[in-house]
Design brief:
The chain has helices at about 30-40, 45-55, and strands spanning about 5-10, 15-20, 25-30, 60. By secondary structure, the protein is of the alpha+beta class.
């Protein structure tokens, strides 16, 4: 598999970023809190998910805009 297993795609025109895990769409995040919740729903415990998002884990690839920015450009 190429790249990170978790992709946070570019912000949509109305805001929010599509999130995929291993190619499966898991939701539309409007904040880091949303991203943490999506990762928790995939089976990660909340602390691990929070650490991954806050620590800019290599397992998360941010596309199309800086990490942690969810508003439309």
């Amino acid at each position: 598999m190429d790249g990170a297993p978790i992709i946070v795609h570019r912000p949509r025109g109305t805001g929010g970023r599509r999130v995929t895990v291993r190619g499966q769409i898991i939701g539309l995040a409007f904040s880091d809190r949303d991203l943490v919740e999506f990762l928790r729903q995939t089976g990660l415990d909340e602390t691990t998910a929070e650490d991954m998002v806050a620590g800019d884990s290599a397992l998360i690839e941010w596309r199309g805009r800086r990490a942690h920015h969810y508003e439309a450009a």
